[in-house]
Specification:
Layout: H1 13-19, H2 39-51, E1 55-56, E2 59-60, E3 71-74, E4 79-85, E5 97-101, E6 104-109, E7 116-119, E8 125-130, H3 139-151
Antiparallel strand pairs: 1-2, 3-4, 4-8, 5-6, 6-7, 7-8
Helix pairs in contact: 2-3
């Protein structure tokens, strides 16, 4: 996890919104597959699950199927969180885009069906997939950064 390029991952909210602007569908449900992390990482994910808010960006919690402490969702698959995911290949790309939100660094991956963000510099990877409706709205990361910071220790 610490092999990700060490350059700062700080972008303004405006830059984040511009970077995510190329996304184009509204169904994030494909991101709900349950990860299978090692036991230590799964324990961190269970702690994160207990700390997650009932509402994110105005959407009420509605977890995807199958039910798991490693996945969470808000709205009708508008916001999907998976904890303990594998390291994204994109982290090896020196041109990868990142953003820092409330003390948590995230890798940004632009996708046709909405942006995907994966934490960096944490003991396990937490992925947040957003539907197209959030292409210009970073508020889901704002709502999720606190619980991630409190429950998934940094590796720096």
């Amino acid at each position: 996890m610490t092999s990700f390029d060490r350059r700062p991952l700080v972008l303004s909210a405006a830059a984040l919104l511009v970077a995510a602007a190329g996304c184009s569908s509204s169904d994030a449900s494909s991101a709900a597959a349950v990860p299978s992390p090692p036991a230590g990482e799964a324990a961190l994910c269970r702690a994160l699950d207990r700390a997650l808010p009932q509402s994110v960006a105005g959407q009420e919690r509605k977890d995807p199927e199958p039910a798991s402490e490693l996945t969470a969702g808000w709205g009708d698959a508008a916001i999907v969180l998976r904890c303990g995911v594998p390291r994204p290949e994109r982290m090896s790309d020196p041109q990868a885009q990142g953003v820092e939100v409330n003390g948590v660094n995230w890798l940004l991956e632009e996708r046709d069906d909405g942006p995907r963000f994966t934490t960096t510099y944490r003991r396990t990877y937490v992925e947040v997939t957003l539907a197209k409706q959030y292409t210009h709205d970073a508020s889901p990361l704002t709502d999720l950064a606190g619980p991630v910071e409190r429950t998934v220790p940094a590796t720096l």
